[in-house]
Amino acid sequence: MFCQPVENGVKLFVRLSPKAKREGIEGVYAEPDGSERLKIAVNAPPVDGKANEALIKGLAKRLKIAKSAIVLTAGAADRSKTLFIAGDSDELMKKLEDLK
Question: How far is C-alpha 68 from the chain's CA centre?
Answer without folding.
Answer: 14
